[in-house]
Design brief:
- By secondary structure, the protein is mainly alpha-helical.
- It has one domain (3-157).
- 86% of the residues lie in helices and 0% in strands.
- The chain has four helices and no strands.
- The protein is elongated, with a radius of gyration of 19 Å.
Length: 159
């Protein structure tokens, strides 16, 4: 696969993930939260707080999607290993870690209030593990990208 072709594919996948995030946050979350409240009427007080948590969690994920798009543009321009991409990966890692903290705080809050049901526990734990994994991968890739950028700069100087 050629570099330009790969960059187009990466941008297409990124766009699908951004659209999926928007659909999940603004269509599926209100619908499923309503169904959850139908099964557990005690959670009716949590409808808007749950949606607010989902929307707050979606913001860093959408920002990560934007950062990924910018990285994929650089890949298409044959500038994969650059300091700017390393910084973007680091920012994506920080945003993913912020999401993990939001998931952990939300899980703790719902547990403390006695409002945690199995479905919420599953969503928060999957979100927490996913965000921590994404943060670790992004930060590690940021480190590798900065090292590769330095090697590339040295190689460009020696002809």
């Amino acid at each position: 696969m050629k570099q330009k072709e790969m960059a187009r594919l990466l941008k297409a996948i990124d766009m699908v993930s951004i659209i999926a995030c928007l659909i999940l946050a603004f269509y599926m979350a209100p619908l499923e939260t309503g169904h959850l409240i139908e099964r557990f009427p005690d959670l009716a007080i949590c409808y808007w707080p749950l949606l607010a948590i989902v929307w707050v969690i979606a913001i860093p994920l959408l920002l990560i999607g934007i950062l990924a798009w910018m990285i994929f543009v650089e890949i298409g321009n044959d500038n994969s290993f650059s300091e700017i991409n390393a910084k973007r990966l680091r920012r994506a890692g920080i945003l993913a870690f912020v999401d993990a903290i939001i998931c952990l705080v939300s899980l703790t809050l719902f547990t403390a209030l006695g409002l945690l049901v199995t479905e919420l526990l599953l969503v928060f734990v999957v979100g927490l593990v996913g965000c921590i994994t994404l943060a670790l991968i992004c930060v590690a890739l940021s480190h590798l990208t900065i090292k590769a950028a330095a090697l590339k700069a040295d190689n460009d100087l020696t002809i």
